[in-house]
Design goal:
alpha/beta; Metallo-beta-lactamase, Chain A; 2 domains; 7-stranded mixed beta sheet; 6-stranded mixed beta sheet; 15 helices; 14% strand
């Protein structure tokens, strides 16, 4: 099959992450067709991975591993009605009692269905989690009122506003913790299992891997993030703790050492083919290492974080989807992971008064908000939408019609460029939300910045 014909076949199957060279070896394509919001379209249904493993699809998939002595679950689904349907399917398909429930990490699309298995866990089913599972659960549960306001911007159809929502799954703790460097190996019904706890993964410090050595199957949760293959989400702008790039590289090396023939992420596709898995994991690893090395080099050369966010881009041989993770955001995350938030630009940043405190003074000195809007339009005419947006942020204290209309124009340009470029889910989501809010203020005609 030629390269062009192979690409036609791949696209027709909805798997743009795969391409084929002339010799038939799979290569890594620079992007994938899926985006995060496509997860909401996935139906709850079961499909076999092999003769004893099922994937129960959904916004967060659940995996059922049947053995002669009972079943093992990997993840429990999303915190909504889907996890109830998934449990019903599992109860129909399992060949015996559920002996162990392995939760790959505490994100609610993986742990949210735990509460539906509480009776089994209290009855002796082992709940297996990373040693950092409880720690990360606290990160999500304790500031939940703050976080859900941010999440609502990106996931308006998912976030539940009810303050009484049941989040008991974040209060549950594993009955069997797996520690870094101390794999948990067991055999059930003649099937060998090995649970591995890396230091860090693509979505937090509590990620587990499940390795079936005889079958060469590796369950990875969100080790690689939501899409495959992609540049990892080492910082999610919705707001979470940074993920360490060097730990991530180590986790990639672990996967390469295991050399799986089937890779099972929680979201979207099961990845098959030892050669393709090796090549794609290698590219992801090398892309993160490149980003880290270039960030360190730029820091040592005296460049600012802003310069590095603009300058560091993946070379052609390491290009990956940035539909969820983004290189420039990871550059800043790596910088702040190393040296913290103080950037030595202004000693005023050591104190509690934010830059926005003097925005009214700047508006007055500029001759009013409309004068800033006029200057912002000049930036737009020069193709400098980001510079325009910075000025409009200052002018927003007045919220005049000129400011709002100019802001709308700037956001429309940035949103179009984002969609036509990386089509990063979070970038597009934040720009779209800002644009809709600006349009609503114009329609109201109130000039109220909180309207």
């Amino acid at each position: 099959m030629g390269v062009f014909a192979a690409w036609v076949y791949v696209l027709s199957m909805g798997l743009a992450s795969l391409a084929f060279a002339e010799d038939g070896v799979r290569e890594v394509a620079p992007d994938v067709v899926e985006r995060v919001d496509d997860l909401q379209k996935l139906p709850v249904e079961a499909s076999p991975i092999n003769d004893f493993i099922y994937k129960i699809e959904g916004q967060g998939a659940v995996f059922l591993i049947n053995t002669d002595e009972g079943a093992v679950l990997v993840d429990t689904g999303f915190d909504n009605e889907q996890s109830v349907l998934q449990k019903k399917i599992i109860d129909e398909l399992r060949t015996g009692p559920v002996r162990k429930i392995i939760v790959t990490h505490a994100h609610q699309d993986h742990s949210g269905g735990l509460r539906h298995w509480l009776e089994e866990i209290e009855g002796g089913t082992e709940f297996v989690g990373h040693q950092r599972y409880g720690y990360m659960s606290r990160h999500y549960l304790e500031p939940v009122a703050f976080l859900k306001k941010r999440f609502k911007i990106l996931y308006p159809n998912i976030v539940v506003d009810d303050p009484a929502q049941d989040r008991s799954y974040w209060e549950m703790r594993p009955t069997r913790e797996v520690y870094v460097g101390q794999d948990y190996a067991f055999t059930l019904g003649g099937v060998d299992f090995r649970v591995i706890a890396p230091n860090n993964t693509g979505e937090g410090e509590d990620g587990l891997l499940l390795w079936l050595p005889e079958q060469k199957i590796l369950f990875v949760g969100d080790l690689f993030g939501t899409l495959y293959p992609m540049f990892p989400n080492l910082y999610t702008v919705r707001g979470e703790k940074y993920r360490d790039p060097l730990d991530y590289v180590d986790a990639m090396n672990l996967v390469l050492e295991l050399s799986p023939e089937i890779l099972v992420p929680t979201h979207f596709h099961v990845i098959r083919g030892k050669d393709y898995i090796r090549s794609s994991v290698t590219v992801m690893r090398d892309a993160v290492q490149y980003m880290w090395d270039e960030t360190i080099r730029g820091m040592n050369e005296g460049k600012t974080v802003w310069q590095l966010m603009e300058e560091i881009q993946l070379p052609p041989e390491l290009e990956l989807s940035q539909g969820h993770g983004k290189v420039s955001w990871s550059v800043r995350a790596a910088w702040e992971l190393l040296v913290g938030w103080y950037n030595y630009e202004s000693v005023a940043n050591l104190y509690h008064v934010p830059p926005s405190a003097v925005y009214p003074d700047l508006v007055e000195l500029a001759g009013g908000a409309d004068a800033l809007a006029d200057r912002a339009r000049q930036h737009l005419q020069r193709g400098e939408a980001l510079e325009a947006l910075r000025l409009l942020d200052i002018a927003a204290v007045a919220e005049s019609e000129a400011v709002l209309r100019t802001r709308l124009a700037a956001l429309e340009i940035l949103l179009r460029e984002a969609r036509e470029g990386l089509n990063n889910y979070s970038e597009v989501g934040f720009l779209r939300a800002d644009l809709e809010a600006t349009r609503a203020k114009l329609q109201e005609g109130s000039g109220d910045p909180d309207g």
